[in-house]
Design goal:
Number of domains: 3
Number of strands: 26
Strand content: 35-45%
Structural class: alpha+beta
Shape: elongated
Helix content: 10-25%
Number of helices: 9
Largest sheet: 9 strands, antiparallel
Mean pLDDT: 87
Low-confidence stretches: 1-49
Distance between the termini: 37 Å
Length: about 500
């Protein structure tokens, strides 16, 4: 696998075509009951059922549509065919923003192929009882030959909001229309803004990983993720470099390290927001700011106020459903979006949530020496690796031959020193317990220094930086293990 993609799980999403959805909804939207029964009473019920009178109100092709003008209770906008090509559209009210081509195409398709589900009343005289005096929407579709048709959408039908009343302007026949056919005429213009905040690259076109930086309100450090340039970490292609150096847990960190790519909003709340709007939605004092930068990109995600799940009375529950967000570094996205909370791990996840439990990692084949220093003694463990056999061939401790298998067990215990809890407190020098130096043949390696914190906890400085706090019983077991290694006794594997 390409190193750029190490740790990335790419999920493919299959979408049903518009025509298939409409067909399914139309078939499932009738008044009929269960037709599976073959008894006589069931047969009579089906026979006596009123048959829907479906009418093809507009029978044109979407390719013939030149414009669709919509005025609804949410907003007003006009979609016109772009001069740049038949398959592209422009909405003047959204000029400068990136638009959803699929949504625009669906609007044109529905306007060109409008059909009713049933006829409610012919020669109607009182339009107000259907909501036409205060319509849900009015839309006009104009075709390339100059024909223009205007339709008025009234109230949703009382029996089911899956249907609306509809009539053509200038005519008095009232129809029942499936909401799916006219949903694009009811939506606000903001629904046509592209909601893919950052495109998901193809599997063979991923850019080199740069730096992910997360700033959170109330947290006095930044979380920084970068590429593991050392090439010795086998846990992930990326590592955390702030607030501590640590290896990522692939199963828990992919959404954190790579979730900016493919990030998608659920809806567009405000287009072209001004300073007042940014303040209103919490974007001037954000919950989090996430930047992802590299040679080919520079993205900035700002996460504002939360939107809570509502109870039956409409009151906020504790559960957060989504957040208001803005994105910078992507053309045509000058909006405030709503993004699902589940897509924003940077707001809630801590470094401990995404770090591996491994505090240090060096292949034993790369390690030439381990030095353990305590106040009263120093132990040197020399390791010889046989490249031909691809295995450790010899080990010595203070010049004394060691059992190779025991050394491997000892080393496995060492590198699994647990990164349990972050700790940035500088320990007292007189609290020093022990120092372990892992020295690789190439000159690299890691140094772990241990200092007493409390009776049960020990502070660990990783490569000179206070980083973790661990249980003291790990130190106790390590001291037993180094004594057992020297004596040729069994090495403890747990603590």
């Amino acid at each position: 696998m390409n190193s750029k993609l190490k740790g990335i799980i790419v999920v493919g999403v299959l979408a049903a075509s518009l025509g298939g959805v409409l067909a399914f909804l139309e078939l499932s939207g009738g008044n009929g009951g269960d037709s599976s029964s073959g008894d006589e009473s069931s047969s009579k019920a089906v026979i006596n059922q009123k048959e829907n009178v479906k009418t093809q109100l507009v029978d044109r092709s979407a390719d013939e549509v030149e414009s669709v003008e919509v005025k609804n209770k949410n907003s007003a906008f006009t979609m016109v065919r772009s001069k740049s090509g038949k398959s592209t559209w422009e909405i003047g009210e959204l000029s400068g923003l990136s638009l959803m081509l699929s949504e625009e195409g669906a609007l044109a398709d529905c306007a060109a192929t409008l059909k009713s589900f049933d006829t409610v009343e012919e020669n109607a005289e009182d339009f107000s009882k259907y909501g036409f005096d205060d319509p849900t929407s009015t839309f006009t579709v104009t075709f390339s030959d100059g024909e223009a048709r205007t339709f008025i959408i009234g109230d949703p039908m009382p029996s089911s909001d899956r249907y609306y009343y509809l009539r053509e302007d200038g005519k008095n026949t009232v129809y029942q229309v499936l909401s799916t056919y006219i949903s694009y005429m009811i939506e606000p213009k903001e629904a046509y803004v592209n909601r893919v905040l950052i495109s998901q690259p193809g599997s063979d076109a991923y850019p080199d990983y740069g730096e992910l930086r997360v700033k959170r309100k109330g947290v006095d450090y930044d979380v920084v993720i970068e590429n593991d340039d050392s090439e010795v970490g086998a846990v992930s292609a990326q590592v955390m470099t702030s607030p501590v150096y640590g290896y990522l847990n692939i199963s828990n960190s992919t959404d954190y390290s790579h979730g900016m790519w493919g990030l998608t909003a659920t809806s567009t709340e405000v287009i072209f927001p001004d300073d007042k709007a940014l303040e209103k939605y919490g974007l001037t004092d954000p919950e989090a700011v996430v930047t992802l930068t590299g040679e080919e990109y520079d993205f900035k995600l700002t996460v504002g106020n939360p939107v809570h799940v509502k109870d039956e009375e409409g009151n906020d529950k504790d559960e957060i459903e989504s957040y208001y967000c803005t994105i910078e570094g992507v053309k045509g996205m000058d909006c405030i979006f709503l993004v699902s909370a589940s897509s924003l791990p940077w707001v809630t996840k801590t470094p401990e949530d995404v770090l591996s439990t491994l505090m240090t990692f060096n292949y034993i084949k790369d390690v030439g020496e381990i030095v353990v220093t305590k106040p009263d003694r120093t132990d040197n463990i020399a390791i010889t690796y046989d490249k031909d056999a691809d295995d450790v061939s010899k080990a010595q401790m203070n010049g004394k031959e060691l059992d190779v298998d025991s050394l491997k067990t000892f080393y496995e215990f060492l590198i699994t020193c647990p990164a349990e809890e972050l700790c940035f407190d500088e320990p007292k020098e007189d609290a020093f317990v022990m120092k372990i130096e892992i020295k690789r043949y190439d000159g690299g390696g890691d140094t772990l220094e241990f200092y007493t914190d409390t009776g049960r906890r020990t502070i660990v400085k990783l490569n000179g930086v206070p980083s973790y706090r661990i249980e003291t019983k790990w130190i106790t077991q390590f001291e037993k293990n180094i004594a057992a290694l020297e004596k040729g006794e069994k090495i403890g594997e747990s603590y």
